[in-house]
Amino acid sequence: MNTIEKYNRLEELKKLVIKNKRLMVEDIVEYFNISYPTARRYIQEALINNKDLKKIRNGIGLITDFGNTEIYFEEKLNIRTEEKKAIAKKCASLILEDESVIIDSGTTCYFFAQELYHKNLKIISTDIRISMELIDNKDISVYTIGGEIRKGYYSVGGPIAQENIKNFNVNTAVMSADSINIERGITNTDVFEIPVKKELRKCAERLILISDSSKFNNNSFYHVIDLSAIDTLITDSNIDKDICKRLKEEKNIELIIV
Fold it and tell me: 68 lies in a domain?
């Protein structure tokens, strides 16, 4: 098998895992019409080349499956980068000059910050990496909320941050999510960020959720907010059509697919 064929096969396997959340060895055998030893080799090769996949008993799954395992910021930057950047660019196009915007932590929000070239923006950041990304832009005033920094993730949280964020009233909040579920709303893997995320929604006139499609149909341990609190949701074209329909009809969310 040449390099191109191997790459295409691994990409196809990855897409199947993303769509189904997990695949058993027998599923891979049936789909690719291969032997069990070959299927196990496919799994090993996929795990080496994709940091967002994990080994499960007799199969392979998403590292975010059930939303209770979180990888560090630097690693997340290399996962679904193309989708995240497209989502971020679209979100930036919805921001107007002279707006005030509060930005959540996370890699998609980080890419969003890189797309901000508007004049006279006021940005409140809950992520020190995002603050540093914007600090040299002369057209943007950057505010930080203060508080404890979560190592490995750069998000700011704790009681000081929760209290300080109450001092702001902004036009737009841009939020990320660890997991999204139609019934349970937005959930998060770690309790550290929850209070700030809740206050982030309260201080904004509108809330834009930016998230790639792999976050849907997952549940993390801690509830953040219900989907009814979201005004606009931006995601990529791999999102399930049934989820799209339910978001529009049941939750009355403006859904933008890039």
Answer: no
Both ends of the chain: CA-CA distance in Å?
Answer: 34
DSSP lists the bridge partners of residue 256 as 234
Which residues on adjacent β-strands are paired with residue 141? 122
Q: What is the pLDDT of residues 125-162, one digit of tens each?
A: 999 999 999 999 999 999 999 999 999 899 999 999 99
Place of tokens 């990496």: 129
232 φ/ψ sector (left φ>0, alpha ψ -120 to 50, else beta): beta
CATH number at residue 38: 1.10.10.10
Interval 43-90: pLDDT, tens: 988 887 676 788 887 888 876 544 455 678 887 888 889 999 999 999
Q: For position 64, what pLDDT does the model report?
A: 57
Task: Say whether both 133 and 208 belong to one domain.
Answer: yes
One domain, residues 178 and 78? yes
pLDDT digits (tens, 9 = 90+) for 79-88: 889 999 999 9
Instruction: Provide the domain count of the chain.
Output: 2
The secondary structure of 122-162 as a DSSP string is EEEESBHHHHHHHTT-TTEEEEE--SEE-TTT-BEEHHHHH
Write the CB contacts of 30 (distance below 8 Å, at least 6 apart in sequence): none
Please name the amino acid found at residue 247. Answer: L
Q: Tell me, what amino acid is at 85?
A: K
Query: How far, CA to CA in Å, does 226 sit from each of 20, 86, 181, 204, 206?
Result: 24, 25, 9, 16, 14
- Residues 107-117 have a mean pLDDT of 97
Say if residues 83 and 15 touch (Cβ distance below 8 Å): no
